[in-house]
Design brief:
This protein is α/β, with parallel strands linked by helices and 255 residues long. It has ten helices and eight strands. It binds 2-phosphoglycolic acid.
Length: 255
């Protein structure tokens, strides 16, 4: 099975930060990680800070991105931000389908699929979040839930759309809690996703990274990201503390 060469660590700052905070935070991360070169590193910021992220990270090994994107290319969509606008700031990543959006803003799997493909169309890297609720896990249907999320995209755009992209397995019960998935759970679901994508033997999907997100910190990063099936991590709270984020990146870099 196609394995990716580099692991990836992406920070999701969510609705946090300010010009002042970011200035210190981004520079601290940039300086401390300047020699870390066996992993890809990204920071996804709120839209107003894309320019600041670009200015600080443009001459570094750290990429930047957004936490969402509009599903339409342009037009009368008040408050939306198009993928072309993201590319104006050289953003590399766009998170799509984060559960905090799909739950709070009723984002459908259909919309997420459109967003995924629009990000691909501009040669950015979509970071698709998939995962089940606690009730769904307790009911034992986590595989079905995750498969449905992925199949909605595949049905519309084919397996090839997953080339050069990232899927984050993020069980909703693990996000913002202090309960990360166990290495066994993460391993099982990341393998499940990989097998699902690669079961289409007509297409070889290069450089699809399957990562884990949900309460990753410097204490569990080695166990989770050290798994062969886990190509890296999506970090929420841990990316708000520069020392913690740096430590996580160094740990993953050492694997
Ligand atoms: P957390 O968030 O690391 O704070 O659990 C992860 C995420 O929402 O991507």
């Amino acid at each position: 099975m196609n394995k990716v060469s580099k692991k990836v660590v992406v920070g999701n700052l969510k609705m946090n930060g300010s010009l002042d905070f970011n200035e210190k935070h981004f520079n601290q991360i940039k300086i401390a990680l300047k020699d870390v070169n066996t992993i890809d590193i990204g920071i996804c910021v709120s839209y107003p800070y894309l320019f600041q992220a670009q200015m600080i990270f443009q001459d570094s090994n750290i990429s930047w991105g957004s936490q969402n994107v509009a599903k339409d290319e342009k037009g009368p969509f008040t408050g939306e931000v198009s993928v072309a606008m993201l590319t104006d700031f050289n953003a590399k990543y766009a998170i799509v389908g984060h559960s905090e959006r799909s739950t709070a803003y009723c984002e459908s799997d259909e919309n997420i699929a459109t967003k995924f493909s629009i990000v691909k169309s501009k040669s950015m890297t979509p970071l698709l979040c998939v995962g089940e609720t606690l009730i769904e896990r307790e009911a034992g249907i986590m595989e079905r839930v995750v498969a449905n999320q992925i199949e909605t995209i595949r049905k519309k755009y084919g397996t090839n759309v997953f080339k050069n992209s990232i899927i984050a397995y993020e069980p909703i019960w693990a996000i913002g809690s202090d309960l990360a998935a166990s290495p066994e759970q993460a391993d099982h679901m990341c393998n499940f996703i990989r097998n699902l994508i690669h079961e289409d033997k007509n297409n070889s999907i290069d450089d699809l990274k399957i990562i884990y997100g949900g309460s990753v910190n410097s204490k569990n990063a080695l166990q989770l990201c050290g798994l062969e099936s886990v190509d890296g991590a999506l970090i929420g709270r841990g990316s708000l503390n520069a020392e913690e984020f740096i430590k996580i990146c160094q740990i993953v870099n050492s694997i």
